[in-house]
Amino acid sequence: MKTTLAAVEKACDKRWCVIDAEGEILGRLAVKIANVLRGRNKSTYAPHMDMGDFVVIVNAEKVVLTGKKEQNKEYMFFSGYQSGDSRVNVESMRAKKPKFIIEHAVRGMLPRNRLASALMRKLKVYAGPEHPHGAQNPIVLAK
Fold first, then answer.
1. In angstroms, rounded to a whole number, what is the distance separating the alpha carbons of residues 78 and 88?
2. What is the reported pLDDT for 44?
3. Measured between alpha carbons, how far is 93 from 101 in angstroms, rounded to an integer?
4. Which residues pair with 123 in a beta bridge?
5. How far apart are CA 14 and CA 52, in angstroms?
6. What is the DSSP string of 70-103?
7. Residue 45 belongs to domain spanning
8. Structurally, how many domains does the chain consist of?
9. pLDDT by residue for the chain (143 residues), tens digit each?
């Protein structure tokens, strides 16, 4: 018996999915998004190939964090200079860049290689309820 691996062009049909982040817990939502981006929900999944779908996230500003993470969780940035580190908590990051919270969580759940860059290009995050991808006829993923 032989195991066959199909080429990406033949085995994979790229669909568009919409996920509403309103009221969703950040970590659980990021797992769902990462699995759809990688294609783990398909029977043709291969860990070394891009078999996943495009994912559109709406209402990114309304994602929920449990406990006291809203005030205590910090994102650290480093400029490259001495004493060039800065820390921003989730509360102020949500006010400035609400898309960053979801993108950062999903990036942490993808592999650390070139494939992750290709997968992140298929993630589209929008702070509000509107998105410009209606022409792709996206399907709504259930909560």
1. 12
2. 81
3. 7
4. 55
5. 7
6. HHH-EEEEE-SSTT-EEEEEHHHHHHH-HHHHHH
7. 12-66+98-140
8. 1
9. 777 766 666 667 889 999 999 999 999 999 999 999 999 988 888 888 888 999 999 999 999 999 999 999 999 999 999 999 999 999 999 999 999 999 999 999 999 999 999 999 999 999 999 999 999 999 999 77
Prediction pTM value: 0.90
Contact 48, 88 (CB under 8 A): no
DSSP H or E run through 107: helix 98-108
At 18, the amino acid letter reads V
Q: Tell me if 28 is assigned to some domain.
A: yes
Structural tokens at position 69: 């993470």
* CATH number of domain containing 58: 3.90.1180.10
Radius of gyration of the chain (CA): 17
